[in-house]
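Revision sheet: structure tokens.
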Amino acid sequence: MANLLVTRFPNGVTNVGEDSPFADLAMPAAPRFHTYMEDFDYYVAANWTVTETDAGATQALTDGDGGLLLITNTAADNDLVSLQKVGESFRFASGKKLFFEARFKVSDATQSDVVIGLQITDTSPLDVTDGVFFIKDDGAATVNLRVEKNNTATATSSVATLVSDTFITLGFYYDGGAVIEYSVNGVVKGTSVTTNLPDDEDMTVTIALQNGEAVAKTMTVDYVFVAKER
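Predicted:
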């Protein structure tokens, strides 16, 4: 039998560009990372801690390619719906890389408050004490990135701009050291410092929508992904 030439790829194979936050994650080596991927092909309410300020809000699957969760609020000003995955299972740790990414849209890019990211379990996700998350206040379409520990936050303003009923992908990447990169639609846009990194608390996936006026708003979530180096 002829000798066979064997090519080995010890670091795996990827088609991720070098400028992507995914580039350093070596994702094919799955056991190296604790990963969570929610694509919303299924929705089990018991898997989430749901907070509603008024009865009547709904969270349910909706039709769409890739799996979609539709969150529909009730119609009073400041009505809130938040979902937090049951079980805080991610912690920021020195020397351990962590990546978060989510794709979503809201019906009203201006008159709504939005939170998506990692937080401690809390019934007030817009005023939480610990987390790394994207937040958008009502009255503006701009999104900020907040790094917060013990109610002291480092905020990076205007990292992205929402457009009504238009999907956006937001992500952040902690390098295990002093930098958090953030990305918009798969492109790295800038960095934040880790001065107030919440490294003494376990975190969970958090999604929240609050009305900015007395009109019901919706939020459609395509997926949420988290990976933490073991």
